[in-house]
Design goal:
118 residues, mainly beta, seven-stranded mixed sheet, four-stranded antiparallel sheet, 11 strands, 53% strand
Length: 118
């Protein structure tokens, strides 16, 4: 019912910045909570940050202060601004969405690769 497409990944040097975008389509009103996850090589997928349609946000300690989530509800697009990137931020970043009633994220994008070189 909801389709998510991430884009904006790439190669950046340590200390640099990237902005990821997640375009949602379909019945987007059914999945008002959007989030970013990442999966580094050899590691489990981990939650990074989320934002509900009413503006409530949740950040992990590692993301807070460097990463900022925002969204344009009119465009059905979420963004992840990543600053002061570190090599350990290298991962495939996934956009996800869910309803308020769910605890698990129901919809997932295909992922976009972020590589931070030293």
């Amino acid at each position: 019912q909801v389709q998510l497409v991430e884009y904006g990944g790439g190669l950046v040097q340590a200390g640099g910045s990237l902005r990821l975008s997640c375009a949602a389509s379909g019945r987007t009103s059914s999945a008002p909570v959007m989030a970013w996850f990442r999966q580094a090589p050899g590691r489990e997928r981990e939650f990074v940050v989320s934002m509900s349609s009413n503006g409530f946000t949740r950040y992990t300690d590692s993301a807070k202060g460097r990463f900022t989530i925002s969204r344009d509800n009119a465009k059905n697009t979420a963004y992840l601004q990543m600053n002061s990137l570190k090599p350990e931020d290298t991962a495939v970043y996934y956009c996800a969405a869910r309803s308020y009633a769910k605890t698990e994220y129901e919809y997932w994008g295909q992922g976009t690769q972020v590589t931070v070189s030293s």
